[in-house]
Fold this sequence. Notes:
The chain has 169 residues and is an alpha+beta fold. It has a domain at 34-147: NADH Oxidase, CATH 3.40.109. 32% of the residues lie in helices and 18% in strands. α2 packs antiparallel against α4. The protein starts with a helix and ends in a 22-residue tail after the last strand.
Amino acid sequence: MDILTAIFTRRSVRHFTQEPVSDSDLETLLRAGMQAPSADNGQPWRFVVIDDRLLMDKIPSIHPWSDMMKEAALGILVCGQVVPGEMGKYWQQDCAAAAENILLAAHGIGLGAVWLGIAPDAKRMAAFSALVGLPANVQPLGLIAVGHPAHTYQPADRYDPAKVHINRW
């Protein structure tokens, strides 16, 4: 699938089959995430792959919109290693780019995925940090539920020229 097709046809997938995600496909997703741009090429992203069903079943108790984790084959917790200095403050933007790459790659190889926001909700960030034992200098940005889609999803055209301004508001 070419990149524009992936962008224009990607949908958030919240219902999955029970088919597992192969190790090869998982590596493809992680490689795609690590190809994202980052401030000063800092590459602050760190990923925690969650495929332990006991851990996955705990997630809906700490994230109000994560029921799909009960069906997902796995979750990818997208985190940022926060470093001191000017470039360290861009970790959320860097990791968001990595997350979008993962979403597009998942769609491109026939998987479904949905991004669940964690940051900047301090309570949710603390809960996920505790769930997977993140060190203090690593912060969770979001969780991506991944699996084989249970349904076919139609593309949605979201382009709205009223939201575009040229040179000035």
